Amino acid sequence: MIPTSATSNDTARTASSDAVLDPPGCALLIVGCGNLLRGDDGVGPVLVRHLFDRGMPDPVRLADGGTAGMDVAFKMRGAERVVIVDASSTGAAPGTVYRVPGAELAQLPPLQGLHSHSFRWDHAIAFARWALADECPSDITVFLIEAADMTLGADLSPAVAAAMEQVIEILETEFIGPLRPKPPSDPDELTVQFTADGYLRLGAALAAAHFPADAAVARKQDDELWLLPLRGPRNGGLLLKQRNPAGDRAVLVREVLDDEIPVGERPAVWDADHGALRIPLEQK
Q1: Which GO biological process entries does UniProt record here (predicted)?
Q2: Which of 80, 131, 224, 227 is positioned for an S-S bond with 277, CB 3.0–4.6 A?
Q3: What is the structure's pLDDT at 112?
Q4: Other beta carbons less than 10 A from residue 139's beta carbon
Q5: How far is CA 35 from CA 62, 87, 239, in A?
């Protein structure tokens, strides 16, 4: 007779062997490569941190590739598009940005003789093609930013910091922006709700479209409450907290309104010129 415990263990082993542990797919993977401890060499990981603070839509994954090229290669599995950001040292003017499209990545360095400490972004792509085969993404773009100072312990140089912001804007416009949720197309459908305990509630679509970093500044402007998005919590302001699995948000505005809370639902208007959500406080 087979002991019950042995049968259970065999069943568990069989179930485990049948399981397929695929990485979660994503529409876009952005990887920042480089060494944070060496000045401009860390521009890739620093850029990823800035994107994280901005708030990314669900189809986007961010990865700090550091200096571990093999890890970068395996992170690429399951991604539809990949963007890699790294520093370069070609002798060009500091802050020069190179954009290397996928079509120019066909000829990559051989993997023979490499070890884990000599991996670069191009080796990571070559390794991914070898290791992932047909599962390696074909849509890969690389941004390289020419470094000025890779001294141990240095900060990003001004030229590289400015170039990083340029790359962030390119990523937002061409890669990330199209994946962000769109606000309700009908302005009449834009509504918010004030609660008796002083919270302002925003629907998931509205919050994701205009407050992706979950941080904002609130102020009274005449007979309206203005809510202006910030680029991240490190800038201070108020935090928009997730209040349910659907992704609806709530932000405490009691002090801004001096405890005079207009409880109930209110219409809202997104003012693109001022970059603010405007909410009338008086019933019309």
Answers
A1: protein processing
A2: 227
A3: 53
A4: 12
A5: 17, 9, 31
Q: Which residue has the higher pLDDT, 271 or 245?
A: 271
Amino acid at 136: C
Q: CB neighbours of 119 closer than 8 A, spacing ≥ 6?
A: 67, 68, 69, 70, 72, 127
**In 3-state terms, what secondary structure has residue 256?**
coil
Which domains are present in the chain?
A: 26-179 (3.40.50.1450), 187-280 (no CATH)
- pLDDT value for 190: 86
Cα 77 from chain centroid (whole Å): 18
Q: Is 171 exposed, middle or buried (0-12, 13-18, 19+ CB in 10 A)?
A: buried
Q: Which one is predicted more confidently, 125 or 247?
A: 247
φ, ψ of residue 93 to 5 degrees: the values are -65, 135
Report how far apart, in Å, the C-alpha atoms of 271 and of each of 216, 243, 249 are: 15, 25, 20
Pairing status of strand 139-146 against strand 79-88 = parallel
- Nearby residues of 192 by Cβ (< 8 Å), 6 or more positions away: 200, 201, 202, 203, 206, 265, 266, 268, 277, 279
What tokens appear for 145 in the block? 């930013």
* CA atoms of 84 and 153, how far apart (whole Å): 23
The Cα–Cα gap between 200 and 129 comes to 49
Is residue 8 predicted with pLDDT exceeding 60?
A: no
Q: Scan for tokens 């069989």, then name that residue.
A: 14
Beta bridge partners of residue 218, listed in sequence order:
227
